[in-house]
Amino acid sequence: MKFMKLGSKPDAFQADGKCIRYVTSDLATDVTINVGEVKFYLHKFPLLSKSSRLRKLVLKASEECCDEINMVDFPGGPKAFEICAKFCYGMTVTLNAYNVVAACCAAEYLEMTEDVDRGNLIFKIEVFLNSSIFRSWKDSIIVLQTTKSVLPWSENLKIVGRCIDSIASKTSLDPAKITWSYTYNRKLSVSDKTAGDGMKFREKIVSVPKDWWVEDICELDIDLYKRVMTAVKSKGRMDGVAICEALKTYAVRWLPDSVDSLDSDVHSWRNKLLVETIVCLLPSDRGVGCSCSFLLKLLKVAILVGVDNSAKEDLLKRISLKLYEASVKDLLIPARPPQTTLYDIEMVLSIVKRYMMLSHDLDVAKNEMGCTDLVLGHGSLLSVGKLIDEYLEEIARDPNLSLASFIDLSQSVPEFARPVHDGLYKAIDTYLKEHLSLTKVERKKLCSLMDVKKLTMDASMHAAQNERLPLRVVVQVLFFEQVRSVAGVQKLRDTSHSTTNTDEESEKTAAEDCNSLEKQMSRIKIKEDAFQEKCELAKQSSKNSKSGIQLLPSRSRRMFDKLWGFGKGHADNRSSETSASSQSPTSMVPGDTKSSGSSSRNRRHSIS
């Protein structure tokens, strides 16, 4: 810390209790000055030789025959006045970052200018500020903190503005030119780690990260912090990542961890002001800088402390642009009354819809303008689809989650964002486990969200044995599992027996097979009165071919055994759901598929 010593005489000030200060001297004191609650017994001559204001006050007191001079509104209080008085006596006084602002304001109040005496206190302080304080990183911050106790004097004397400009200018310097000490207790950012990977050990020690300045300014009060950050942003040399790191560090430093502390009446106003300030300081470019995780945490706090709608709206727009970066934990926003669910589903649904709208708008802009550097793309849409499926699985455990809310959130993601439906299947299965009171119609509506053609082999095997699923869904799963096996074997046969085919012919054949399978699946829904007849056809065809069923895994064969057993033994009592949604694979796939389907008549005995 920088300091300046003034004067050479020994300190002769003495205290008599807490409220009396006097100077030990052979000469009797001839003036009494009251500063706040402290009385100073001093001598007129040294004071009047340095202070123009004291001259006027002493003269006025003499005219009024008053023995004391009262200075109730003295800036800096008794301590600042004592510094000025010691300077007038020529006694040793030390200026530093903690007392220089108060001394400066006191000197201005006492009018200790060059017109009164050459080399007066105001001049000395100005030299110290310019030569030492404003050149020091940490001293500038300390001085800025002390300015609050002497407002509005420090503001009118431009000390606050000069401190802010000094701090902002230093943050904008090239990190390689930083030679002063700073506080850094966080982990290095990815970019700083990458930059240091190729350095030698000694070089790594002295390397300075880009956000070296972040922690030191966290000690500032919120109003001063806002002004410093505004000045830093106005310089235009700081990227959004560093700005967001600074805001995140400040939020961690001052926002309480517990929900009760955030909601308490004692600090509610302060917490609300803090969140609103951080939101307004976020980088103007919403697509870069702050992580989605930090923005969502900020949104949770904003909801708890009740910030203005404009601040929440700004956060929602920023989160919508970076939703693909979020995790399920980030999206678990606690619900507030009158909501009955554990988490705020409507808020997440709103974010997803905003994201999809932004994605569509940016796609249009990309096509019209030929832009290639847009934030959102197909990869991010896939990430959002996976994220929402995982989120659905998490919230499906909530007994108060309505089926309509589950369906709305599921349908907010477009089909092409879900190339695989394993995640959606897990969410549906979890919902079925936790909501046993669902009717058949509701279960059917819920399962209609899922496309069994997009399930992987593992998910299909699990679904084929899942008694919570409607019968129609199980039949579809088993059928596509069989079709997949048939297609795999057929592909191996084609590869071994048609080596002379060109790549173009192979692609054409595969396309025709896919079209055929699609046509076959479009006829999976059959009428109830045809169900028994198709089961009989399956029995007859099974005598001619036994090979097709071997293409299915053993677990699926057992399910088919139960299924066709159900059709045989309970034809008269089968439900309308079974008759409307189940269909024998023999009625859809000719040739090899027919034989494989018909051989599985004894596979399922009961479906729940």
Describe the fold and architecture.
Pathway: Protein modification; protein ubiquitination. Among the domains are: about 5-135, 2-Layer Sandwich (Potassium Channel Kv1.1, Chain A); about 320-365 and about 375-490. Helix 23 (about 455-465) crosses helix 24 (about 470-495). The chain is elongated, with a radius of gyration of 40 Å. A five-stranded mixed beta sheet has the order 2-3-5-4-6, covered by helices on one side. The protein has a two-stranded antiparallel sheet with strand order 1-7. Mean pLDDT is about 80; it is low at about 190-205, about 370-375, about 525-555 and about 560-608. It has helices spanning about 45-50, 50-65, 75-90, 100-110, 120-130, 135-145, 155, 160-170, 190-195, 200-205, 220-235, 240-255, 260-265, 270-280, 290-305, 310-320, 330, 345-370, 380-395, 405-410, 420-435, 440-445, 455-465, 470-495, 505-520, 530-545, 555-570, 575-580, 590-600; strands at about 5, 15, 20-25, 30-35, 40, 70, 95. It is about 55% helix and about 5% strand. It is mainly alpha-helical and about 600 residues long.
Q: What's the quick description here?
A:
The protein is mainly alpha-helical. Among the domains are: about 5-135, 2-Layer Sandwich (Potassium Channel Kv1.1, Chain A), CATH 3.30.710; about 320-365 and about 375-490.
